[in-house]
Amino acid sequence: MLGQLHIKNIGIIDDVTINFEDGLNIMTGETGAGKSLIIDSINAISGARMSKEIIKHGEESAIVEACFFEGEDTTILTREFYMNGRSICKVNGRMVTLAELKETGESLIDIHGQHDNQSLLSEKTHVNLLDSFAEKDLLDLKENYRSELAEYKAIKEKIKASYGDPIERARRIDLLKYQKDEIENARLKVDEETSLEERRMLIMNSEKIVTSLKKSYALLDENVVEELGSIVHELSGISTLNERYENALQVVNDAYYSLKDVSSEIMDCADEVSFDENEQNEIEERLDLIFSLKRKYGNDVEKVLEYLDKISEELNILENSEEIINELENNLHKKEKILKELAIKIREVRKSYSKVIEEKVNNELQDLEMKKAYIEFAFGEVEEFLDNGMDHVQILICTNVGEGLKPLSKIASGGEISRVMLALKTVLSAYDEIPTMIFDEIDTGISGQAGKAVAEKMKLISDTHQVICVTHLPVIAASGKTNYFIEKNTKEGRTFTEVLKLKEEQVVSEIARILAGNDLSDAVLKHAKELRKNMKCRA
Fold first, then answer.
1. Ordered DSSP codes for 69-124
2. Helical segments of 109-205, H only
């Protein structure tokens, strides 16, 4: 259950912490006091998209933090907003994506507001509503169906992309053949470009290289080597007289022969250097070709060769398309058969659950002062494979004897829509494992005996779920196990919201305020006290 909610810098909320209890938690207060901001904050930690405009005026950031308890386990969801548009999500202090926060939040909270009443009027939501009841029995079936559907779509896309239009296919073949021939005729090698660049640099600097080599040879041969030869001659005459002379002779002698070898090597290098204008032109042309191919097909030679492999495979498929098309279409027909079989199984599960749900919801409608009303699920088969099967599911309702079944969208009364949704939620609560249910002004358009029936349903749900409800109806306020008053105050020129956990006598006063505004006469207070006593005693 939601144990604690901390909100800072959201709208007119400065810094508020609410400690919720189990059972039925009721939130009341005047319009504009901040009740919707509290629901918005809970939506935020449930992963809903939020605008930076929700941040309190003059502040750079806002934070919502919710602590959930389940036995000895604690889960803390955190959402931080910044004026630069950045948002940080955390689960138990670990940073997560918004999608991960949403997944965790939706497993802990089920939020129902006036928007849900409107979504109930859209037939697109009806199949999902039915599936939420049948989720356990549909889980594996729908997972298999979606896996097969993904493969089916991939095959269709392959057929369409490669073989669908004969004219487009012929154009594609011509293009790929041209590209393939252009790359293959170039006979590219992976390290060729580096070698060509090195050879190009040698040719461009050949004159400088020959000059330096010949000058180095002349200096060695005419000066250094000749001088070292003279030194060897002089030391040879005295080397036997002293070991140090002999060592010196050895060093100079080694240097003499080493330099003579280097001198010969330098001359050989000079003789090998040549400038061939034709070769330079060929290298330039080859490098231009490689650059052109890289510009068209990849950033380097390796990428160009990878592209060649790719288009060669595609060309092979296109040129042998008839055989491949036949194989793909056979696979497509097999997938269609599997998908239809799975869709039929999904429909059977849905239909079996729909009968159970119809009976349960219709019983709830009786309790909610819609004595003559009943719903039915109408099934229609669609031609295409949808993401969740091949069913068009529509909830039909009859609200008065003799009128017959009509789409929910034909219901004029918002109060009737609210009660239908509450009936569905009441039945669903027995199926799902989400610990906390939140109702935001579900009492819209409801009063009198219907309001009392709604209050009793909420109390019933709160026997197995924590319920948090924002209401304007005194009878629902009177039903709360724990009541909170949302109040707007002004201090030092700034407006802020306070949340007060009400004591029993305060609950009675708040019920009286909802009944009669600020005219808290003895009669109104007596009525409020009796209503509170009556609703607390009801199961």
1. EETTEEEEEEEEEETTS-EEEEETTEEE-HHHHHHHHHHHEEEE-HHHHHHHTSGG
2. 114-120, 126-133, 135-163, 166-186, 192-204
Q: Are residues 178 and 109 in the same domain?
A: no
Element housing 452 (H / E): helix 448-461
CA 376 from centre of chain: 36
Please provide residue 538's backbone torsions phi and psi, each rounded to the nearest 5 degrees. -75, 145
Query: Does a structural domain hold residue 415?
Result: no
| The dihedral sign for the CA sequence 474, 480, 485, 486 | negative
Q: Which among 318, 353, 372 is the end of a domain?
A: 318
Residue 449: domain span: 2-113+436-537
Quickly list DSSP for 326-376.
HHHHHHHHHHHHHHHHHHHHHHHHHHHHHHHHHHHHHHHHHHTT-TT-EEE
CA 183 to CA 297: how far, in whole Å? 9
Rounded Cα gap, residues 499 and 359, in angstroms? 41
User: Which positions of the chain have pLDDT values less than 50?
Assistant: 539
Task: Tell me the C-alpha distance between 161 and 230, whole Å.
Answer: 85
Rg for the chain, CA atoms, rounded: 42
Cβ proximity of 419 and 371 under 8 Å:
no
Cα–Cα distance measured from residue 535 to residue 56, given in angstroms and rounded to the nearest whole number: 38
Burial level of 86, CB count in 10 A (0-12/13-18/19+)? exposed
Question: In sequence order, what DSSP letters do the residues of 384-436 get, joined into one string?
Answer: EEETTEEEEEEEEEE-STTS--EEGGG---HHHHHHHHHHHHHHHTTT---SE
Distances (CA, A) of 220 to 228, 234, 267, 401: 10, 20, 11, 121
Task: For residues 98 and 211, state if they share a domain.
Answer: no
Angle between helices 277-297 and 192-204 (to 10 degrees): 140
pLDDT value of position 539: 45
Instruction: Classify 192 as helix, strand or coil.
Output: helix
**Beta strands 436-440 and 109-112: pairing type?**
parallel
Query: What CATH number did the domain enclosing 506 receive?
Result: 3.40.50.300
- Tally of residues, the chain: 539
pLDDT of residue 116: 65
Percent of the chain with pLDDT strictly greater than 90:
42
